[in-house]
Request: fold
Amino acid sequence: DSELILQRFVPPMLDPVLGDYVRNIPEARDPEVLSLFTCIISKLQGLMTNEVPRVFEAVFKSTLDMITANFEDFPEHRINLFNLLRAINQYCFPALLGSSANFGLIVESIKWAFKHTERNIAETGLNTLLELFHNVALSQVASAFHQQYYLGLLQDVFSVLTDTLHSPGFKLHAQILAHMFLIVESKQITAPLWDPNTVQAVDNSSYLRELLSGMFCQSFPNLAPPTVRHLVNGLFDNCRDGAVFKQHLRDFLVSLKEFGGGDELYTEEREAEVARKAAELQKRQEAVPGIINPHAIPDDMNDF
Reply:
């Protein structure tokens, strides 16, 4: 019973567990505390919204201070913290909006996660960012969020997209970028992304096209202006079709000559092909009595 757990078990646990965690020296803080609250939030979901600020204040900043000095120290705390942040974003998003200062720290933490070279941490950060965009779109803070964070996030996602160390995240990079260009092209972002006091622009789409063209020409001087225009226009024109958009990004990355032939950009397709062939082999073997060890037969077949 979720209500029973919330009323009887959670309150008595908060003070001793959170208090012990925040008072301890970093080396003595148990990373399982972060896992514990990730499990509780994942189980109780929205019922935990009122308790999240208390959890956040106790563990978030103190843990963040431990892990932001470099990419190596406290690996368990690192992944557990980002899993906790993802759970809060998924199930208790309103709790993240209580403090603008904390919200800014959360966005910076998500950036820190998806820039990490450890694959599982980077993927957690990318998934959290994608889910954050979807939550923001349904909230009252959408305009303010996009004005304050959209351009910075766009630049940071392009930064990891063009870094060969982050090529395993290509699928999520493509999903996030497609979403970001779609909400501009479909005019879901109604507030101007530029500063009206310093920049003159017709709309967000034209402003962003001009901004990206300049950014790409500066960052990738080996690309000819027509190539840059084709790239930028394709980002907007193809954002409604995930497969076409992903291929457009692949072509761009290969043109940079940093990704060689681009084989690492097809990881998702290769994994799907391996899974398909394994399933076909399994099916053929199951059709021949005695060829498969009985212990390897799926449970649903043992029912016959």
